[in-house]
Description:
The complex is a heterotrimer of chains A (214), B (196) and C (208). With 196 residues, chain B is an all-alpha fold. Chain B is 67% helix and 0% strand. Chain B is built from eight helices and no strands. The model of chain B has no long low-confidence stretch (mean pLDDT 86). With 208 residues, chain C is an alpha+beta fold. Chain C has helices at residues 2-50, 60-70, 142-145, 182-201; strands at residues 71-76, 79-84, 95-102, 107-114, 121-128, 163-165, 174-176. Chain C has a five-stranded antiparallel sheet with strand order 1-2-3-4-5. A two-stranded parallel ribbon of chain C has the order 6-7. In chain C, strand 3 (95-102) and strand 4 (107-114) form a beta hairpin. In chain C, helix 1 crosses helix 2. The model of chain C has no long low-confidence stretch (mean pLDDT 87).
Amino acid sequence: MSETSPQALPGAAGEGRKAFREGFLTNNPIFAQVLGICSALAVTSKIETSLVMGVGYIFVLALSAWVVSLLRETIPHRIRIIFQVLVVCVFVIVLDQILKAFYWQASRQLGPYVGLIITNTLTLGRTEGFSIRHKPMTALLDGIGNGLGYATVLALLGAIRELLGSGKLFGAVVLPGSVYTPNQLMILAPGAFFALGLLIALLNFVMLKTAKRK
Amino acid sequence: MQQTPALLIFFAALFTNNILLSNFLGMCHWLACTRSMLSAFGLGVAITVVTGITTILNYVMYHFVLIPLHLEYLTFLIFIAVIAAFVQLAEMVIERFSSKLYYSLGVFLPLMVVNCTIMGAALFMVTRNYSFGQTVGWGFGAGGGWMLSAVLLAAMRKKAGYSNPPAIFKGAGLVMIIAGFMALTFMGFNGMVAIE
Amino acid sequence: MKHKNLYTMFYAAILGLVCALIPTAVGTYTRPLREANAKVDEIKNTLRVLGIPFSASTPSKELVTFFQDRVVQQKSGDLTLYYAKPEAGQAADPVAIRFEGRGVWGPIRGYLALGSDMRTIKAITFYYHEETPGLGGEISTAAFMGKFPGKKIVGSDGAPGFHIKRLGASEQNEIDGISGATLTGGKVETILTLLADRIVKENIHVGD
């Protein structure tokens, strides 16, 4: 993805935009960085849960990245990892409490995944690998970009697995039993791996084709 | 489940209830750090030791501090703090004893703090209500199970390196598919032994 | 360097303090709201399993009064029986009991509604669980919960228990499980069988 746009801005804004683009595509959390896989397997058996996790996660990642970047000059080197982890932890717990108080329905959806968000390697991967060395705005955009990239892959996986695994989308039957016998393996973990592998191959195929055309 | 002996839990955690292949926890490091046998085995030993010890420490924290003081909502924070401290220790030990391993692991070494295997082992210890003895068997078994699966995957990736897959599958794509078959194989163990 | 170490320790102490204080503060501030929400949720679940209609848009306070007017709570040891105030001379039907047990990934909570004979299942609901979406998670779907009404918590020989079979459920206290959710099915079976055992052995019923 080269910078061919004549509007390319140097400085912080350009940096932020670059971080966003990379986090979303070329440095996609799942395809390129291989991070956040546990959640990607656990919640993507249905597209609904994938979306809930995806949206919740974008918030946590963006906010954590922003806060870590804000305080980056003050963090002692020895405890920087635990600092970042605790920031994420506190955000997630507070988010969960606030949802339970003001948006009960949403909290019921997200509740079981609170733990999965805290232990998501992508969060620490971004705060340690990027936020701690960049300005807050750039870190924020990097967080949003990565979050979106992550959520997109989650949604794709969720759609594939639910459709092929149970013939449904969002719980509603799309492929009735008479037309398609659901392959339950897709809902189990091996199916998630196969789906992910094929998605990556597909992505590579598309990238190769566009590279050939250039 | 209260009566399941610690040794049985240990073996079950290694094979039939492998925390990675049955519960799918610990994937990131599994997929990213099994490029070489050194990383897989080295990290495996580290994870086994860290998981074993932190699960025991977390047992003590949970049963002797959090519950008596009604501070259950701080469980995550406390567990992560314990794990982070230990991973820091492990990092220092690895850097001292094998700089080769240290550099090959890169950012994934500090990422061990949020490794789902280690945290998952502690959380399962809580939800399955293990006694102290059972916790010992479970902690080291869970970590050992990770090491076993990692070494297996590293071996397979090495073998796959000699094959010639289509260009679009080279790299991550093929690893995922191999992982899928491994997961499929270990599914056969499901339910053989009940350790909960 | 002494200065650096001191700074680190100071920072770590403040960090620990802040990380313990913020969730505690937010938790304390939100507790009344959270508990109120949880209570309303429980009320809604109880009303649903008892088959008492209510409007989803009813404000919480009204719902609580509605619940307290219409539903009787009777304690039986550590279990609580819920039933709609029966008409004069009629027996309470259905009677709901809340249950909680261990699932595969976390707790499973629900209500079991029995007929006045305390043996026939009128309805069941699993309102909380952390099972795998699409597999064990299907226990909270209408399709699965709909298999229960009409079944009993004792076998034809009178032995208490409820069983979730892989295939071919035929007995009055058996149903077919969910394909791919054998483990969760086993957990549900354990929870319900223990409950059934208690209900029969301790002769839990309305009245006394």
